[in-house]
């Protein structure tokens, strides 16, 4: 069922506390933690605690939770004192998605080129 924890999902394990993470912010519905392989001085992942495989599936299943993720991303940017930042939802393996639990990358703290690679 949409939203249920998946045994084989790394980010569900982080939500459950079974895999450690450096949490920077938590709400009832979202978790934000530092990316293990940072691509910028600030690189935080914001996830819905409920399992959805990607941002599109999340948006279709739960618009309110999708909004919670965006609100949490802005809160991370505030705490990290980012005037500018990039929010990235890699969607599909061809776009670089490797963990199939919806997540927003919050990237900042350095100049960010546009267009991205
Ligand atoms: P994506 O490639 O968009 O699916 O993003 C997955 C992100 O998860 C990558 O940037 C990884 O570096 C990050 N990642 C993988 N394992 C962990 C972990 N245990 N804790 C924190 N971040 C992780
Ligand atoms: Zn999951």
Kindly state the mean pLDDT as a whole number? Answer: 97
**Bound ligands:** adenosine monophosphate, zinc ion
Structural class: alpha+beta
Unreliable spans are none
How much is the radius of gyration in Å?
13 Å
Describe the largest sheet. Answer: 5 strands, antiparallel
Q: What is the architecture at the second tier of CATH?
A: 2-Layer Sandwich
State the helicity in percent bands: 25-40%
CATH class reads Alpha Beta
Physical arrangement of strands within the biggest beta sheet: 1-2-3-5-4
CATH homologous superfamily - what is it?
Answer: HIT-like
The ordered string of helix (H) and strand (E) elements is: HEEEHHEE
Number of helices: 3
Write down the CATH topology: HIT family, subunit A
Distance between the termini: 35 Å
Approximately how much beta-strand content do the residues carry?
A: 15-25%
Q: In total, how many beta strands?
A: 5
Tally of distinct domains = 1
Shape: globular
């Amino acid at each position: 069922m949409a939203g249920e924890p998946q045994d084989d999902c790394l980010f569900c394990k982080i939500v459950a506390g079974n895999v450690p993470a450096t949490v920077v912010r938590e709400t009832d519905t979202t978790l934000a933690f530092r990316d293990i392989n940072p691509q910028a001085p600030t690189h935080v992942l914001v996830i819905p605690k409920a399992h959805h495989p990607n941002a599109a599936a999340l948006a279709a299943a739960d618009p309110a939770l999708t909004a919670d993720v965006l609100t949490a991303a802005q809160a991370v940017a505030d705490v990290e004192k980012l005037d500018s930042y990039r929010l990235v939802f890699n969607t599909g393996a061809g776009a670089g998605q490797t963990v199939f639990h919806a997540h927003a990358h919050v990237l900042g703290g350095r100049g960010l080129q546009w267009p991205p690679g």
